[in-house]
Amino acid sequence: MNKPLDIFEAGFNRFNAFLAALVALSIGLIAVLIPLNLLMVKAQWGSIWWLNEGIEYTLYVGVFICAPWVLQQGSHVRVDVLTSALPAHLSERMEKILDGIGIALCLLLCFYGARATIIEFQDGTLPDKDLRIANWYMMAVFTFAFALLAIEFSLRLRRVKEILAKEDQVMSEAGF
Q1: Average model confidence (pLDDT) for the chain?
Q2: What whole-number distance in Å separates Cα of residue 114 and Cα of residue 86?
Q3: Rounded Cα gap, residues 169 and 156, in angstroms
C-alpha cells in the first residue's frame, strides 16, 4: 500500500528490537556481575566499586530505551475495559484519539527533554556519585526515548484495526 512507510516501519521495528536485545543483554550482565561482586568481596579480592551506580544508570537507560519496543509489542500496562465494551467503529476512533494524545505527550516530553539536555550540557552538571556520568547524557536518553515513542504512537495509528483485533483475541482467550 504505502511502500516507503512500510519500509520505514520495518526498519524502525528492527531498530527497536535491537535496542530491546541490548537491554536484555545488560540485564543478563547485571545478573552475572552482582554474584561476581559478592564473591570478590567475600574472598577479599576487592570489589566492583561502580556496580551499584552502574546498575542504576543501566536500569534508567533500559526502561526508557525499551519503552517503544514494549509499546509496539502491546506489552505495556493498559486498561482495555472501555475499548472492549464499545462497538468496533467507536473503539477504533477511541484508539486513534488515545494514540494522538500519546503522540502529543511524547512530543511535549521530548521538547522539554531536549531543553533540559541543552541546559545540562551548558552547565556541565555532574551527579554527586562515585560513577559520574554527566547529567546531559541521561537527559539525552530521555529525549531520544520520547522521540522514539512519538514515532511508535504515530505508527500505531496505521495499525489500529490490527491492534484492536489482536486485543480482542487476547480478551477472548482470557475469558472476557
Answers
A1: 89
A2: 38
A3: 18
Q: How far apart are CA 95 and CA 111, in angstroms?
A: 24
- Calpha distance 71→154 (Å, rounded): 12
Domain count, the chain: 1
Please state, in angstroms and as integers, the Cα–Cα distance from residue 22 to each residue in 15, 31, 62, 132, 153, following that order: 11, 14, 8, 22, 22
- Domain span at 14: 3-174
Residue 73: count other Cβ atoms within 10 Å of its Cβ: 13
Asked whether 92 and 161 are in contact (CB, 8 A), the reply is yes
pLDDT tens digit sequence for 74-123: 777 666 677 777 787 888 888 889 899 999 999 999 999 999 999 999 99
**Distance from C-alpha of 140 to C-alpha of 87, rounded to nearest angstrom:** 41
pLDDT at position 110, please?
98
Confidence of residue 162 (pLDDT cuts 50, 70, 90): confident
Residue type, 27: I
